[in-house]
Give the backbone structure.
Amino acid sequence: MKFFIDTANLNEIKEAHDLGVLDGVTTNPSLMAKEGITGKKNILNHYLEICKIVDGDVSAEVISTDFDGMVKEGKELAKLDDKITVKIPMTKDGVKACKYFSSNGIKTNVTLVFSAGQALIAAKAGAKYVSPFLGRLDDISTDGLNLIEEIRIIYDNYLFDTNILAASIRHPMHIINCAKIGADVITSPLSSIMGLIKHPLTDIGLEKFLSDYKKGNK
Ligand code: G3P
């Protein structure tokens, strides 16, 4: 299972990278805006900065909503670095753009996926990644994990090589449950990744080991 971090914050990306478990990065226009990165030139430069840190795919989302605009923007993004994966919304034009990119050797991540049907179409269009939004479904009292399960079954039935990239992760249990179901990738805030490490019994046990060591080595 691959671990991506869902942020445009360079310090958080460095922290996850330094931990040694980072396989990639996903961003979106909201995450870029959160870091105060605005204007085309600054946004493109920021992607380059991210690519310098991470050894793996970096999703960069298009702003255009029409096919021609997505293709133009996506080509420009893909030219920045081999790590760039063009992130496209799950719309009719997005599906067409996905097919165009996959036929022309450009990696894609189809985002804003909320149903198994959308995930099936993304795979048919040759997406490298499909991003079902787990947390946002949970937020509206719909079982996000059930969607990941459905997509796993469909992709396994037909040996689609599109990777299930579980997105909109809210907490460590989302990551654990995605791992049980067999999501190929999770993209998560740093806090949820760090949450996997912590356990009170580990802290208590370590404290005891160290105090016993000190007693024996006075
Ligand atoms: O990057 C897409 C997705 O992970 C967004 O998550 O927390 O805004 O629902 P969230």
